[in-house]
From TrEMBL:
Binding site for (2R)-3-phosphoglycerate: 36, 116, 156
Official protein name in the record: Phosphoglycerate kinase
A GO cellular component annotation in the UniProt record: cytosol
Localization per record: Cytoplasm
Ribonucleoprotein is among the record's keywords: no
Annotated PROSITE patterns: PGLYCERATE_KINASE
Catalytic class of the enzyme: transferase
Reaction(s) catalysed (UniProt annotation): (2R)-3-phosphoglycerate + ATP = (2R)-3-phospho-glyceroyl phosphate + ADP
Its EC number(s): 2.7.2.3
Residues reported in the UniProt entry to bind substrate: 21-23, 36, 59-62, 116, 156
Family per similarity comment: Belongs to the phosphoglycerate kinase family.
Lineage of producing organism: Archaea, Methanobacteriati, Methanobacteriota, Stenosarchaea group, Halobacteria
Amino acid sequence: MPAFDTIDDLPADSRVLVRLDLNSPIEDGDPQDNRRFERHAETVRELADAGHRVVLMAHQGRPGRDDFTSLAGHADILADHVGRDVAFVADTYGEAALDAIDALGPGEVLLLENTRMCDDELPEASPEEKAETEFVETLAPRFDAYVNDAYSAAHRKHASLVGFPLALPAYAGRVMETEYEANTAIATREFDGPVTMVVGGTKATDVIGVMDALDDRVDRFLLGGVAGELFLRAAGHPVGRDVGEMDLFDEQWEGNRELIESVLDERGDAVRLASDLAYEGADGDRAEVAVDDIEEKREAFLDVGAATVADYEPAIRESDAVFVKGALGVFEDERFADGTVGVLEAIAETDCFSVVGGGDTSRAIEMYGLSEDDFSHVSIAGGAYIRALTGEPLPAVEVLEAAADR
Ligand SMILES: Nc1ncnc2c1ncn2[C@@H]1O[C@H](COP(=O)(O)OP(=O)(O)O)[C@@H](O)[C@H]1O
Ligand SMILES: O=C(OP(=O)(O)O)[C@H](O)COP(=O)(O)O
């Protein structure tokens, strides 16, 4: 069980400052609706229904990047999910923000401007230093409690995540609670049968590090995606290289070659690699080739093949727990979704404990009509999920735990 207090422990009629993670894809300047809104809406609705005055903080993008925008559009999307008005003020802790906070009535909800527009939010520093910033020292006295629901940002030591829990009584929101429990299961729970990890996607450096760190806590790794191709390359197959205008493979190969070879050396029996791969044939349709028949990589491989899925399915059915990190193919293109969807369907059909993580990969669930209810947990975290899997501490969770001990 987590060692932090939750919103069940909040005193009645509190003024609560709540940190969410609404960081979203931005298209034409507008935030796109996604699972983060839906999940955080549950915490916000519960707090508002209980009669608390609810002030929300969140970030969007990083300064200097295209996705660094105001949260005005986020307030509207969140309001739709909460089923209540979510007021917005284009200020983080200045006079306009303080006036809006003071004017809030019981059960009302206000979203403050992108926390990263405030100089004190970034860069990373210790909780003690962040608690002494003007941002925290100005806002904290207006509140009775701080709630952190932003599990997916909990690996960052930013003021809104680690500073406020030192200045106020601090609690975990519902998203924080459920993400924490599911994502640490691999490190904290005992499973009776085999534990399997499906490893794919494009961020090979991240997932190979996870494989190395998890070591024998996972009984078998089923590989696909870019990471899988790099492992095939290490096993002596002429794949896992950039072709044409690609730049997904060679650099990640150079950076991970030794680690891949050492994982294969030490855990080779636990690592299952694709036996066939799919690519775009001359007619534009999906074509497949057995890995043993590949003499030279001439085209981009965009999915694992049907024989690989048939090989992975029984391994999933025999498992007591399955954790997914990364897609097995470019599932956004229907022609190359079979690997990812086949494996997700196999997981959905079993009653094993299952967690699907990664913002991109978890989108395959709704895209292909799978039900989220058929998985134990679909995480809305990327980087924090990876760290939780390997047992690496999350600074924003640590300060919540420390707050509960005070
Ligand atoms: N062979 C491949 N070549 C290129 N992209 C791939 C391949 N296999 C999977 N992908 C891509 O990987 C993405 C998902 O993985 P990634 O972005 O690493 O993970 P996350 O789910 O954590 O966001 C998908 O968008 C998919 O298109
Ligand atoms: O979306 C996020 O992380 P993720 O892409 O790892 O899930 C979080 O909001 C953290 O954002 P950041 O990586 O800009 O600090």
